[in-house]
Amino acid sequence: MHRGVVLKSALAARTGIKVRILGLDPGLRHTGWGVIEAEGNRLSYVADGVVHPNPELSLAERLQVLFLEVQALVAVYAPDECAIEDTFVSKNPTSTLKLGHARAAAMLAPAVAGIMVSEYKPNLVKKSVVGAGHADKDQVAMMMRVLLPGCNAKKDAADALAVAVCHAHHRTSVMRMVK
Description:
Distance between the termini: 12 Å
Structural class: alpha/beta
CATH architecture: 2-Layer Sandwich
Largest sheet: 5 strands, mixed
């Protein structure tokens, strides 16, 4: 991480400068993404979508697709910061490990571009946007439509926007820890 990137983000967090945030909800089958802008407490919707790697590809090829797609998002939307949902540990260790691979591929693209990547637990994301840590995907999507006028994101894309919103709410604390 470049010190200049961290200092710019810390300054923006304190002064209310407009910051563009890329939120990611990683998965090998569906990786949601969402872009918002935060200016002080004001949030605005920019874009969202989902990356769907072909399930018939090898693991390495699907990871490459995720990396290249997120890298393209970074190039198109030029985020100042990135936030990603932390791994949800399931009962199946193989699934958890594969999710970890997907997270790594998604995190690497902004990191290579020198963009700070913050991680948030799924329960914190849901609690930050819905008020309950165990909210379902439909509740998260509905809140994204309320909080971000113009947004009509569904499921994975809405989850990614929720990660970005969570980061917008918690970024001042994150910046203090990074300094």
